[in-house]
Structures are given as C-alpha cells and as structure tokens.
Design goal:
The protein is of the alpha+beta class and 123 residues long. The strands form two sheets. Strands 4, 5, 6, 8, 9 and 10 form a six-stranded antiparallel beta sheet that branches. The chain has a four-stranded antiparallel beta sheet with strand order 1-2-3-7, with no helix packed on it. It folds into two domains: 27 residues; 92 residues, Immunoglobulin-like.
Amino acid sequence: MKLTRRTITAALSSLAAAGGLLAFGAPAEAASQCTSTGAGYLCVNVDPRGYDASYQKTSGDTAHVDFNLVCANGRWFGDEGSFYISAGETRTYTFAVGSQGSCFLKLIDMRTGATWQTPSISR
C-alpha cells in the first residue's frame, strides 16, 4: 500500500511539474487560440508560413464544415474546400498567407449555416 501511494504521489508531482512547463515554458508566439463548438475544439496557431487551423471533433454526428481565416486588415482566406469530419477525428489546414497581423479562424457548418470562431491571434 505504501509503494502504491508513493508511486501515485510521484506521478502526480511529475504531472504537476510537466503541466507547469507546458503552461509557462512555451514561447508566447506558440500559443494557440481555441474555442469550443460544443462537439469539439476549433484552434488557430501561428506558423512560419502563416496560420495553422485545426478542428478536433469529440462528439456528435459526422459534420460537413469549412475553415476560413478572417483578418483585421480586411483580408479573408478560404481553404481548399469543405470537408467531412467524424467524432474522434482531427483535421488541420495551413493558411500559407504570410503575416496578415491579427486574424481569427472561422468554422462554418455547411448543413446548418452555424459558425464558430476562435479569438484572434497575431503573426
């Protein structure tokens, strides 16, 4: 019983330390901006070529969706078209548009017209 408690305590201490490194050790430019769609997570990150988009679907029926990048400078960028995604899948796309300043990622449900957007991220 003592060995089990020590192992669990050591594991929790290691996780807490790792979590601290993850939360505070990454450079600010590597931060992602995410939002919940209710059935998954939509995120945007900076990339050397532009902006990375990702959608991790965690629940619900297969969805037909489309990524769009909307920037404060008035420019808008589409990806290579809409796609289908099922629960348990993650889809990504890199908008290779260079630095456009502050932008957010928009996800459009092609069936219902519903949209979700991330907070803005600057590059």
